[in-house]
Amino acid sequence: MKDEKNIHGFKVPDSYFESFEERLLKRLASKKLPNETGFKVPDDYFINLEDKVMARYKASEETQKVIPLFRRKNLAYISAVAASIIIILSVVLTNSDATATFSSIDPNSIEMYIIDGNLELDSDEVMALLSNESINELENAEAYFSEENIENYLLDSLDDTNILIE
Fold first, then answer.
1. How much is the pTM?
2. In sequence order, what DSSP letters do the residues of 78-117 get, joined into one string?
3. Which of 1, 32, 123, 151 has the greatest number of C-beta atoms within 10 Å?
4. Alpha helix ranges (H) inside the chain
5. String of b and e for 89-119 (b: at least 16 CB within 10 Å)?
6. Phi, psi for 148 (deg, rounded to 5)
7. What is the CA radius of gyration of the chain?
8. Distance (Å, rounded) from C-alpha 166 to C-alpha 61?
9. Which residues of 129-150 are buried (b: 16+ CB within 10 A; e: fewer)?
10. Which residues cross the membrane (predicted)?
11. Do the Cβ atoms of 164 and 155 come closer than 8 Å?
C-alpha cells in the first residue's frame, strides 16, 4: 500500500529527454512561421511622439484640480480626537495624584472600620507586621499601662468623675 502512494501514473518513453531539443528544432524548421507580427506603426510615429505626449501632459496639468492634504473636515476630526484624548488623560492623571496617605485618613474612620468588624486580625498577624525593635518597645511599655497608672491618669485628666463610677 505504501509503494502505491507515490506512483503518479505518468510514463515517459526511454531516452525521451535526450533527443527532445533536436526534435523540437526540426519541427520548427519544417513549419513556416509568419514574417510579419501583425502590428503596424504609422509613418513618422516615433518622430512626433514626444511632442504629442508633452502637449497632452501640459493640457492635463492645466485642468487638474489640486486636492489639499489636510481638509477642514479632516482637521476637525483630528482636533476632536486629540481633545478627547487630552480630556481622558487629564481625568486619569488628576485621579492618580489623589492617592490617600495614612496621615490624610481620619482616625475616627479607621476606628469605625475596626469596630464594624471589617478588620479581623489575630495577635499572630499583628506580630508578623511588627519589627523586632517595635515588639521590644511594646513589651517595655506594658509597665506604663498598669491599672494604677491608667486610673491615676483618668482621675487627673477627667473633670467628671461620675463617668468612672459607671
1. 0.22
2. HHHHHHHHHHHHHHHHHHHH----GGGS-HHHHHHHHHTT
3. 151
4. 2-5, 20-30, 45-63, 72-97, 107-115, 123-129, 132-141, 147-157, 162-165
5. eeeeeeeeeeeeeeeeeeeeeeeeeeeeeee
6. -65, -45
7. 50
8. 105
9. eeeeeeeeeeeeeeeeeeeeee
10. 75-93
11. yes
Q: Are 57 and 51 in contact (CB under 8 A)?
A: no
Predicted local confidence at residue 122, as pLDDT: 78
Rounded Cα distance, 139 and 165, in Å: 30
- Length of the chain in residues, anyone? 166
- Kindly give the confidence (pLDDT) of every residue in the chain, 166 residues in length, as a single tens digit, with 9 standing for 90 and above: 555 667 777 888 888 888 889 888 888 887 776 677 788 888 888 888 898 889 888 877 776 677 777 778 888 888 999 999 999 988 887 765 556 677 777 888 877 887 787 777 777 877 787 778 887 887 777 767 778 877 888 777 776 655 655 5
Cell numbers 489640486 correspond to: 66
Grid coordinates representing 122?
A: 489575630
What's phi and psi for 79, nearest 5 deg?
A: -70, -35
Beta carbons of 164 and 154 less than 8 angstroms apart: yes
> What confidence score (pLDDT) does residue 162 get?
58
